[in-house]
Amino acid sequence: MIQRHDRHETARDRARVAAELLEEARLLTETAMLATATTPDAASAAPRNGNGHGNGNGYGNNGNGHRSASRPLKSIPPIRSEAERALTALDVSLAAQPDSVPLLLERATQLGGMGRYSAARADLERALVLDPASVTVRTALGIVLLRKGLWASAVPHLRIVVEAESWSPTAWFYLGEALNHVDDLDGALAAFCRAAELDPRHAKALYGQGVVLDRLRRPDDAARLYRRSREAAGR
Question: Phi and psi of 162, rounded to 5°?
Fold first, then answer.
């Protein structure tokens, strides 16, 4: 379960949660979203009498087993997923408290988990206006921008995050991802290296180093980092 960030008392805990919020939400949504129901076949939905014919009880068949044009079957509404129900509850809460930064962050997390990154970005930008010093909000915004492929827009937010939380390997990794995509290869390599220094088992940071080294035409060094990444991931 994703916990609301205001339950974490320390700045370190809040930043750690923010760095993992949307990733966790995305993974949960990919594996747990419920499918919507389709309208069942009308004939199979109708109760049967002893002769196998539909009876005249209002389900669309008359006493002779023929379809009654005057009593059409009602379509069954689609089942709402847990994510949609949670989003509706957050909409209601924010209607009553539109300037609540924790609620805006929580709704952005939910929206991000549903792949609705533009709406998540709008909530996070609103939250950042209300609380410009929030590293938690800025981290989440940086991740949303990454998900949208807006690498250059994400970079300044992520630079602020690593300045405030220089101990966080996750923050350094995301900065490395953004810098790699804007072709700042030296900066990306430094960020990935810092992430791996802080967490030597950070397989993605090790792999990121390999990618950048490949781009820098250092294939032997890249192969070594790919191998370390596989080892760290247990493969």
Answer: -70, -25
Closest CA to 127 of 153, 151, 157: 157
- Percent of the chain scored above 90 by pLDDT? 63
Q: Which of 60-69, 119-128, 148-157, 197-206 is the least confident region?
A: 60-69
**Nearest of 79, 93, 84 to residue 116 by alpha carbon:** 84
Ramachandran class of 44: left when φ > 0, alpha when ψ lies in -120 to 50, beta otherwise: alpha
Show Cβ contacts of residue 225 under 8 Å, excluding neighbours closer than 6 positions.
206, 207, 209, 210, 213
Identify the structural domains of the chain with CATH numbers, from first to last.
Answer: 1-31+80-165 (1.25.40.10), 167-235 (1.25.40.10)
Q: Is the pTM of this model over 0.70?
A: no
